[in-house]
Amino acid sequence: MEYTVSQLAKISGVSGRTLRYYDEIDLLKPKRIDSNGYRIYTESEIDMLQQILFYRELDFSLEDIKKIVRSPEFEIKYALKNQLINLQEKRNRLDKLIKNVNKTILSMEGDITMSDIEKFEGFKKKIIEKNEKKYGKEIRSLYGDLDIDRSNSKIMQMSENDWSRQEKLSKEINEKLKLAMQSGDPSSDMAQEVCELHKKWLCMFWSENKYSKEAHKSMGQMYVIDERFRNYYDKVSKGAAQFLKDSLDIYCEK
User: Taking residues 228-236, what's their average pLDDT?
Assistant: First the structure.
């Protein structure tokens, strides 16, 4: 049995646009292209699509799925174990979120009173959701789902004192970054102190053993490349994103 894109889309529930995209990225190629230019799929491609959908259901990235289905050397067992951790952490976050939403509703209806600790838990969840919506796609493509989920988990474990400490540290970084820019020298003692403070701030969010000079340096590059990050630092001072990136390049080469 052979199927066109529209026919395969109808029986699989996957849109024709998605099937064409899978072809473009070499994830799922049609068996052949007929004389009219139609993509033609056979049973072997349907079996492959089933595998792809299975891994998508497990929240694997398309890049990882391609490695799984294309490379016999790919460590699927290791990938599944990592993804299991990822899914469990997501489930835990969802369970906590559902519980907090239920408490919030009951609190609004006057049935219960939420403690300050419970309100703080809700605040942290909102921060995570906001960051995911604004930056999630970029940082997940850069660092991977597992590291970002672990970072989110670390946020959820923060106490109010921890949160206040990171806010104070963030403010200190911005203040000293502005002062360091006055010299125009990213290798100056002040600029390098900013980098050290920035490292301490990052390590409050990154999972244990995640920090490396390479990862820190790539973060600085993202501050310049991504308009949203660049705008944040440029509000501190015009050109601050580029100055911080240059300072981090020097810091990470030491």
Answer: 89
